[in-house]
Amino acid sequence: MNNLTLWLIFIAVCIGTFAIRLSFVHLHGRGSFNIGKHQTTLQLLAPAVLAALSIPAIIFQDKATLDSVSIAQITAALVTAILAWAFKGVFWPLCLGMITFWIMKFYNF
Predict the structure, then answer these.
(1) How far apart are CA 40 and CA 74, in angstroms?
(2) Per-residue b/e over 39-60, b at no fewer than 16 CB within 10 Å?
(3) Max Cα-Cα span within the chain
(4) CB atoms inside a 10 Å sphere around CB 109
(5) Do the Cβ atoms of 58 and 40 come closer than 8 Å?
(6) CA 73 to CA 54: how far, in whole Å?
(7) Is the pTM of this model over 0.85?
(8) InterPro entries this protein is in (predicted)?
(9) What is the pLDDT of residue 37?
(10) What is the SS3 assignment for 94?
(11) Do 94 and 50 meet the contact criterion of CB atoms below 8 Å apart?
């Protein structure tokens, strides 16, 4: 695959993603948007994004098998999950989970 083809794929995906998001904004912009109706869904959005970004990086590191899981990553993930449940947010659990990971890596776990 040459560079031109790769850039054309990136641009097409970008336009497609933008069009999908714009269509939902446009559809909800037509009528009255009731935030109470969507409150539960919006509360679940941040934990879902956190899980979608972090779980593949934790479980599958170098190979697509479970034999390469590191104790430091699993421990940091558990600390982050417990703090996310306690804080009901994303910022502090991410920061403290990353600090846990760095400390464990520093001490070679």
Answers:
(1) 29
(2) eeeeeeeebeebeeebeeebee
(3) 56
(4) 14
(5) no
(6) 10
(7) no
(8) Brnchd-chn_aa_trnsp_AzlD (IPR008407)
(9) 76
(10) helix
(11) yes
| Residue 99: pLDDT over 70 | yes
Instruction: Read off the pLDDT of residues 33-59 as tens digits, 9 standing for 90 and up.
Output: 666 777 887 788 777 877 787 777 777
CA angle 52, 53, 55 (to 5 degrees): 70
Whether 109 shows a pLDDT value over 90: the answer reads: no
- Where do runs of H (alpha helix) occur along 1-109? 3-30, 39-59, 71-87, 91-106
Supply angle C-alpha 44, 49, 51, rounded to 5.
95
Please name which of 77, 59, 78 lies closest in space to residue 68, comparing C-alpha atoms: 59
Decide: 97 and 76 in contact? Cβ < 8 Å. Answer: yes
